[in-house]
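User: what does the whole thing look like in 3D?
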Amino acid sequence: MKKITSQQQKVLECIEVYIKETGFPPTRIEICKELGFKSPNAAEMHLRALERKGLITIKSGSSRGICLNNKTVFDGYPVIGLVAAGSPTLAEENIEKIINCDPELFGSNFDYFLKVKGLSMIEAGILENDLVAIKKTTEIKNGDLVVARIDEEVTLKHFFKSQNKIELRPANKDYSVITIDDKVSHFEIEGKGIGLLRNH
Amino acid sequence: MKKITSQQQKVLECIEVYIKETGFPPTRIEICKELGFKSPNAAEMHLRALERKGLITIKSGSSRGICLNNKTVFDGYPVIGLVAAGSPTLAEENIEKIINCDPELFGSNFDYFLKVKGLSMIEAGILENDLVAIKKTTEIKNGDLVVARIDEEVTLKHFFKSQNKIELRPANKDYSVITIDDKVSHFEIEGKGIGLLRNH
DNA sequence: TTATATACTGTAATTATATACAGTAAAAAT
DNA sequence: ATTTTTACTGTATATAATTACAGTATATAA
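Assistant: Here's the predicted 3D structure for the full assembly of 400 residues, as structure tokens:
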């Protein structure tokens, strides 16, 4: 996609605002009024440029026939259940279902829901089948809830790093701490749990 | 609001579909094409009727100047924190903030979020400041998570009813079971917890 | 340096659109 | 029983809107 000029940006915003306020797109002349142009051709040329750059579609011959192309059809966040060994977490085969919700539901944006298996985090109030909202990131602080991949296995634990070792701690007395050492051939932080969703 | 005829309903749906597909409302003639009318006045008359009945607004003189009025501006579910003694749970003074999310996020519809105070349900994985999605209902089964009002105090507990008594059980060894008996002057079930939301 | 794109004004023509008016017919309300 | 509303066809017209064409000027890319 080609770069957009500031004037074209203004025209695009003008169209977006107009649609938001009235429910239908503006005419060339209305764009001119809004932005102070004196010729309908000014608007026309900007519209042509925006169409060339793929941002709008103009339905020829139709009044107000301006379609915005930027509508990202967002159908929700995938729920990841058991991750098949060796496959990327977000691979289609791992997607159990799609949940539609506000991206800002947990304060900051996230990437997917991980469905919790087992009871290893029960003392942190994370039960089996809870959905933990995961944000893909490697910026992790001690104590954060992380999704980690150890030797092709995916696990949800609390992260603790000291001078010489990394520990993944469960929140359950019956489970033991995982220490990342030489025996581990592959270790990777996939992301961070920023929220939780439960269906009673 | 007056009742709508089936033909008017068809015209309204036609407009909604048209907007969904193109991003702008149809002209009179386009409505006619879609519904098989042969005169633009057929569409015009239906539009006038829909405007009289308050379902649309027609911007006079504007091409495609049809605005839908049915847009229910839903700004989200209220989060209820501490409930002031004697006040209805959903009173404005109790609303901490509004969270926008899909009404079907927890399977069935619900009415508000209750912000959890204290640790009485910690063994059920419900921590302080968790938000429990509450559906207002009195249809409760044994073991359900309920919001109950006892003598003007609101509490979140597990519900158990036997032949001769009702118990509200915490999920924490350090808390004791509440038994509803003659000492209680007022007891009421406000609703049922159907889901949970947590911000890490 | 020579195009090409941006950024407009100004005018005009064609077509798209709203909308009024004259009817007809049937259903529903008064 | 009569009026009003619904539900159209068919025609006409003023105006709303797209869109082409002729310019001017500046900035950017080849």
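In plain terms: The helical segments of chain A are 6-22, 28-35, 40-52. Chain A has a mean pLDDT of 90.
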